[in-house]
C-alpha cells in the first residue's frame, strides 16, 4: 500500500511541477501577453476598429469636447495623438502591474495609466489644426474660408488664448494694413486694456507675426480667463481625467466587469509558485527515494518503475490541458453589453488566443516527462537484457537508437525550444508589423506610399500634399516615400520648373512674380516640390531621419522612389553622408530575377530600397524603377477618371505602382478624403490587378492621414498571406 501511495504521489507531483512550470512560462511571463496581443493584431485593431467605433465615441467625447478640433480630425490622426509606441508602453506597464499582483509582490491590484503624454498630444493637435486653418486657405472656397475663420474664433475662445499657435504663416503687411489689423484685433478687448496691448500687437503684425498678435489679445477677449495662458486647455483635460491618471481597475469594476477571476487567479498563481511548488518538489523527491529503496530488487526494474511514473505524470498533465481546451469556452469572461462591439470582440479574441497559447504550452511541457519516461524505459530494457547475458539484436539496437534519437529531439527541441516560443510570442520576427508577411517576397507585398512625402504642412510647404512630416508618415504606416531631389533653383530656372509642377496656373504666376523678391539660391541638396522656394527640407538630414526611424523599428522595410533632379553621384554621396549604406538593399541587375522575402531582408538588415525615376546607378543599389516596375497614370482631375491604363514602365513589369491621387489645381485634400477610403482603394486596386495580371505593390496617395488607405493595404496583404 505504501508503494502504491508513493507512486500516486510521484505522478501527482510530476503533474504539479510541469503545470507550475507552464504557468511560470506563460501566465507569469510578460512576453506571453505581448505575444497574444501581437497574434491578434491588438494594436492595429485598437486604431482601426475600437477607437473609430461610433459606439465608442461617448467614452472619448468628454476629452474631445474641450478641444478646438472636430472629432473627425482627431480620429483621422489617431496614431499622432496616441502613437503606437505610447500604446505599447502603456500596455507593458499594465502587464507588469498585473504580474506583480499575480506573483504576490503586491497585495492589491493597481492598474493606473498615465494619460499626460496623450493629453499633451491632443492639445498639440489643437495648435496644428489652427495652423492648418490658415495654411490651407489657398485650397478652400470662399464659403470654406468663412467657416475656417469662424472655427478659428471659436478655437481661440476654447483655448483661453495666450497660446501661440504653431504653423501660422508670416504675412507681410503694409503700414496701413498693420494699423487696420491692430485696430480690428483690439476692438474685442475691453477699452481699459487696449492701450497696454497696442504696442505688442502692432509690433508683432509689423513683422508679419500673426500668431503672436492673436496670442496677445486672446486672454483679454470677453468670455475667456485672462492670464491663464495656453495651458488652460490641457489643464481642463487633466482635470476631467483626475490629473491625467486613469484608474483602469476602478473603471472596469464600475462598468460591470467582474474582476473576481483575477483575484482567484492570484490566489492560485501565488500559492502555486510558492508553497505548492516547493511541497511538490519535496514530496516528489521523497516518493522517488522511497520507491527506489523499497521497490523492485533489480535496478532495471526500478528504472522501469520510474519510467512508468514519468509516463503517467506526463499523460496526466496532457489530459489536464486537453480538458482545459475542451472547457475553454465556458471559462471565457463575457464583456458587459454596454461595451462597444469592437472592444468586446477584441477582448474575447484575446481571451481565446491566450487560453489556446496556455494549453499549447502545457501540452508541449507534458512532452518532457513523457520523453524522459520513454527514455528510461528503453534504458531499463537494455540494462535488464544485458544483466541476463543477452545482447540486443542489430535490428533491436537500431530501433532503440532511433527511438532514443526521436525522444531526445522531442525533449530537447520541442520542450525547451517550442515552449518558450509559445510563452514569449513577442520574440517572433515581424516584417512590416506582421509575422506572415515575412514569408512573402518583396514584390508580393502591398505598401502604403506617400506621394510627394516631403511636401508637408508640418514643413511649411506651399500647397502641401501631406500634413505630417516624413517621420510621422512612417509612424502612421507609410512604407514607401515618393520624394523629389533638387538643388536650389536659380531665378531663371523657376519658370521652367513651374511648368512641370502640379501648381495651378494662378499659383505659378504668383510664385513667378515673387522671383525678384526671393532669397538667393542656397547651397546643398534638397527635397523640394518643383521649386525649392515653395518649400524645401535638406536631403541628407531627412535621410538621417529615415535611417534613425529604421534603426528604431528593426522589423520594418522602407522604399524610396525618387524623382531625381540631382545626379546619381550626388545621390550616392548623400546616402553615404547620412550613414545609410549598410541598410541599403541592392536589387539584382536582372529585373526578371526573383526578389527575396521580407524575412530575408530583415535578417540581412538590408531594409531600405531606393529607386530612381530617371537614372540607373552608378551605385549598384540605385536602380531605375521603370526597369523593375510599372505604374498607372497620375494626372487624374476627379475620382471618376481614375483608370488602370499603362503609363511609364509598360504593363508587364514585376513591381506595380498605383498612382492614387487627384491633381486639380494642385493636390486636392477634399478628394483625398474620398479616394483614400478603404473600399475605394480596394476596388481600384483589385480592378487594376485583374487588368494587369500583377498584384499592386505601392499605393501612392496624397494626405495619407485622411481616409483609410492603410486599412486597404492591410486587407490586400491579409488576402495574400491567407
Automatic annotation (TrEMBL):
Q: Which domain of life is it from?
A: Bacteria
Could you confirm whether the keyword Cytoplasm appears in this record? Answer: no
A Pfam family (short name) is PI-PLC_X
Record keywords, A-Z: Membrane, Transmembrane, Transmembrane helix
Keyword Manganese found: no
Give TM segment ranges: 274-294, 306-328, 361-383, 399-419
This one is known as: PI-PLC domain-containing protein
Give the taxonomic lineage as stored in the record: Bacteria, Bacillati, Actinomycetota, Actinomycetes, Kitasatosporales
